[in-house]
Write the structure tokens for this entry.
Amino acid sequence: MTPIAHGDDNSGAERSPEERLREHLKSRNLRITPERLTVLHGAMTQSGHFDAEELLEALRRSNRPVSRATLYRTLDHLAEAGLVKRHHFQEGHARFESNFNRAHHDHMVCERCGQVIEFVSEQIEALQEEICEQHGFRAHGHVHQIFGLCKDCQAEHS
Amino acid sequence: MTPIAHGDDNSGAERSPEERLREHLKSRNLRITPERLTVLHGAMTQSGHFDAEELLEALRRSNRPVSRATLYRTLDHLAEAGLVKRHHFQEGHARFESNFNRAHHDHMVCERCGQVIEFVSEQIEALQEEICEQHGFRAHGHVHQIFGLCKDCQAEHS
DNA sequence: CTGACTGCAAAATGTTTGCAGATTC
DNA sequence: GAATCTGCAAACATTTTGCAGTCAG
């Protein structure tokens, strides 16, 4: 039974993100440009989840602005290279998350205070693999988000 | 151990969708209009998942056209009333699913052809409850999507 | 009658694309 | 030098909103 992927593709995590991006681009005859390295660096140093607009603004603030078009085009490459994960949650737009040297995890999100609790369950992971096998489905990743009220907000809310 | 909710709110599933919508609207001093009933019936008779455009077209074809604006506004009400579920898969737009007398299930989504496979695992559900309890988290629902390649697309892609 | 609803068209998002000039290899 | 990039602005796709007239209660 092959371990299920999580979109991590963290094989080769010993190499730096930059090395990995360089390699990815080279292998496709794409060019290594300052803009792409800027976006990479920005994405790697964002804390937690971020969307395109947030990253754009962060780069602008750190005086290394990049055009919206280049940002979107580069995020595609980073996702393909497995350096970021792209999520489509309940919102109408994509959110990203650095995927470098980051262990797989899922999320509980408090609907009241927005707190995010990470969780991992090997048992759930194993069950997912089983289900995929049963359907001949080759998993690339998954989103598993539980939403509700965290401990604090339950107390406060009573 | 309280069973985890899935955002279904399928309590009162014995009443017809129309009764449930009427009740929902009445309780908020909203009006019961032909258009809203049309959208409701359309949504209930779509097979499987559908998006706004598909429903709009279906209603048009069955000679009960509704404006795009009304469709979107009504889908919000249906979702609030728990009569449909709104999903955000890998695409940039929402897909809906009738939630009337529908048991809880999660999804595998093919990234290539968009096919959606439903799955349920009592074991995973139970593990989720456990995890929530461990964190003192009160779950209201969850999103569990596995994305990857379906059987057909794996073959075709080889 | 009054406030909510509808359709329309315009606006607002979030993302993609065509193009001309700049840049990487 | 050739092919790929970048930024810009325009195009797109989806969803939301303002408004004037219509309709449910």
Notes: The longest helix of chain B spans residues 68-80.
